[in-house]
Known about the structure:
By secondary structure, the chain is mainly beta.
Amino acid sequence: MMNFCEKFNEQWQFIAGDHPLFSAAEIAAAEQVGLPHTAVELDYNYFDETSYQRPFSYQKTLSWQPEFDGKQVWLQFDGAMADAKVYVNGQFIKGHRDGYTPFDVLLTPHLLRGENQITVVIDGSENPEIAPFGGQIDYLTFAGIYRHVWLKTTDDLRIKNVQAIAGNVLADEKTLNVTIFLEQVAAGDHQGELVAQLTTLEGDVVATHSQAISGSFPRVEFSLSNLTGIRLWDVDNPALYQLNISIGGTNFSHQFSTRVGFRQAEFTADGFLLNGRKLKLRGINRHQSYPYVGYAMGDHAQKADADLIKNEFKFNLVRTSHYPQAPAFLDRCDELGLLVFEEIPGWQHIGDELWQQGAIDNVRAMIERDWNHPSIILWGVRINESRDCDDFYTQTNQLAHALDPSRQTGGVRCHTNSTLLEDVYTMNDFVLNGGEVALRKPQQVTGLDRQVPYMVTEFNGHMFPTKRFDCEERQHEHVLRHLRVLDACYADPNIAGCIAWCLFDYNTHKDFGSGDRICYHGISDMFRLPKFAAYAYKSQCDVADEPVMQPVTFWARGERCECLILPLIILTNCDEVEFKFGDYPTKRLKPAVEQFPHLPHAPIIIDDSIISVAEFGEWGMQWNTVELRGFHNGKVVSELKMPANPIATKLRVKADYQRLPANEKAATRVTIEALDQAGNLLPFLDDIIQVSVTGPAKVIGPEQLVLKGGAVGVWLEAGKQRGDAVVTFTSRRLGSQTLTLVIE
């Protein structure tokens, strides 16, 4: 009988409290939920973060199936926050004290031939014995079973894991070194054959291998050699291959598949090399949280964040701050060519010996889960921004290198002269605080007498938190700070790259943020709607990728102090921009390469040496429409008009996905924007948006939204049935817009 692996996400009973065995009364009082699930759905802001810091219980009935006969039955949890205990029929089976890494539970010895009650008790308390807890952390951890659970069967000999490391990557003939980790779950004669096949994603066979195996040898190693015609995995052309492994004998069989890529990634004292080519890393930090449901978002939303980072904001690297993130997110990074710096859970605090051992275990769990992702180029084996602790970090580094000799290690700190135990000195540099220095020189930070591999892993963020609806002057300064750090990074060949803090605003504890439980540190808001600073990064892409021309202004006479409009930043990758203001002569403007000489694409900065105060006029004088045209190689590639008298004209709604699978809790983000007659965002229009859904979908969070800074977002979740879901967004001022989602 064949083995199977299927999602075990539906029809869980959920109740607050610690209940290893649900009584009839508790079952009757429970709420039926599907996974991923958050224990407490929070308001957007101004909530009590302690509401989820307590125990919760999930229960699901597992009936004995004929397919279980002669098999080992497992549950695999992709993530449960934070301290999880699994019970079968009230009997404790296994615990897992980390909210970010997966764990397996063998059910077979405990199952009855009938109905079985599977219970998972999770404790969302910030237990000081478990990373990242023990001190204060600047983010929330949202209790719940927030990733997939899988029900699977195996025979007594199974493939536990597979590691594939590419070799001779830059040679014509490449190698794939493969290690198979076998687990003999029960005693027996397990003699058989192993077959490996490397294929393209389209199914074309590249190489095969077969050999005899025995359950008495838990590790099998071999190489697929002399591989020709292999395409390299790169940021521009992320070629992927499929490695299929099967084992079989008279009384067992098992299959394992993983995607792999051929690439060489190396941090050097002179910068970062990808496949031997120097590449400046332009990165962003990402938390995995969402409004209302915290961590509990499905695969589609996870993948959409990766798309946003690479395709919309034009970064080439993401740091998974400050923990391993969803498999679906990493899968999408592989597909997109988005580089990843992945790190273990933690924030500043180092606990006692037991705590440290848990963190060391996290290193193992993270690497063993993710070692085949070609997108991952660096393991973070230090607690973010923690003090030096040489004995502890010697262990984390040694373990990382033993598990995966193909990748370097980093460890993020925020203090100078730190002991370098890792391969790369990774530093949160917050020196820019209105002064002249944007980034310190690497040796000034390391205190070493030599250059070492070096990367800036955070900047700005809490130094200049900025809301998307803040005044124009603050957003102007916010943009300048990001530009200055980015320029300083490009100026120094010894800095491999820099990673901005951070992708979007996020919920946090009362001790951080703006008092409303939000840190406004992002280049976009919690709905991933961009602030002006996002275009500082987007404008660094090539015009061939996408023309960018974004003025850092709301274009109004009285928005800035003293009714000034200058200086005016235009974030662009165009060669020049044509600026037409009212009836005044058209001006051709060039990028400010004198001020930002190292950026791939310096912004255009208009000051009173370019446009006189007389042209713009003073308070009380007529304000005029501006028209912009961006040129590349002499051709118009972008046009923009900002009216002097913007009129609220229409709503624009846009979904990340138009099609969603049924019965998987798949969700898509929808952005709702109030626009003027020229299609520009109206930054001060605050209106109520009523959302109504007809068909198999629902709104995550409230159905009544409020435009903030002229825009808001919402996630829509597909239901269990197939069909069209018609979603209507209604504004008192701007009428209604409809969106149709196909649930299939």
